[in-house]
Write a structure and sequence with these properties.
Length: 214
């Protein structure tokens, strides 16, 4: 089986790659989004006719907005639903939002009928999930799960504890997940399978060792 890492290790590796190796954070995000976009296109089970992208305030949301922009600029009907307080947004999420706005990616709100979409992309939380999910985040996750629409998660299905594979309040039940650099340890446990679906491991230039090892 491919190597897995803890959520803490994934955060440390991100920081090491940015600060010691010297690859800028936005470069990593663009590499991630291009890989995730490629996974969406390559996944025969997904119909990208009408895509809803769920966006949180952190860099998982930044990835999601980057993917939304790639979909939009390649002709796919794409809408974004932003959850969370504007003051909590990360710098890179804000930057991706500006770019999406330049391309006039549509915004929708929590009262949206999720069932009208053909694919939902989950970018609410990744390695930054810190507590049980509640409020609007939980509503969005539950609506996505109840919609019957196939969900593709970014990095870690939102609400799933990447270390233990446990559900933190509620969690996205993805049919597929693009995990960045390495799968997180809890994602490959049998109890996590209904949440991760099929896992794509995307090489974005973040390595545990000197060279990428499958
Ligand atoms: N430059 C980088 O470091 C890279 C980061 N990447 C992406 O960034 C993600 C990590 O980004 P972040 O560290 O910003 O973390 P997240 O985007 O996972 O989430 C962090 C945000 O959610 C809030 N939060 C945590 N738990 C919550 C809860 N239960 N309810 C409400 N709010 C909650 C935090 O306060 C914070 O604002 C990765 O999973 C990956 O998708 C990738 O773009 C690759 C490169
Ligand atoms: K996610």
């Amino acid at each position: 089986m491919a190597e897995t890492i803890s959520v803490q290790q994934s955060r440390e590796l991100d920081q090491k790659t940015i600060n010691e190796v010297g690859i800028p954070s936005l470069v990593l995000m663009e590499r991630a989004a291009l890989k995730i976009y490629g996974d969406l296109l390559a996944n025969d089970e997904l119909d990208l006719t009408k895509v809803l992208v769920l966006v949180g305030s952190g860099n998982n949301g930044g990835d999601a907005l980057d993917v939304a922009r790639l979909l939009e600029t390649h002709g796919f009907d794409t809408s974004v639903l932003l959850i969370g307080k504007p003051q909590s947004r990360s710098e890179q999420m804000e930057r991706q939002l500006q770019i999406c706005d330049y391309y006039q990616v549509k915004h929708v709100f929590l009262d949206e009928d999720f069932g009208q979409y053909t694919t939902i992309v989950d970018g609410l939380f990744g390695s930054g999930l810190a507590r049980a999910v509640e409020g609007d985040f939980a509503t969005a996750i539950d609506k996505a799960n109840q919609s019957g629409v196939k969900i593709h998660a970014i990095d870690i299905p939102s609400g799933l504890n990447g270390d233990s594979g446990e559900v933190m309040g509620t969690a996205v039940k993805a049919t597929s997940t693009s995990t960045l650099a390495y799968a997180k340890t809890g994602m490959v446990l049998s109890q996590a399978k209904p949440y991760t679906g099929k896992i794509f491991v995307d090489d974005i230039g973040i390595y545990l060792h000197d060279h990428y090892e499958e």
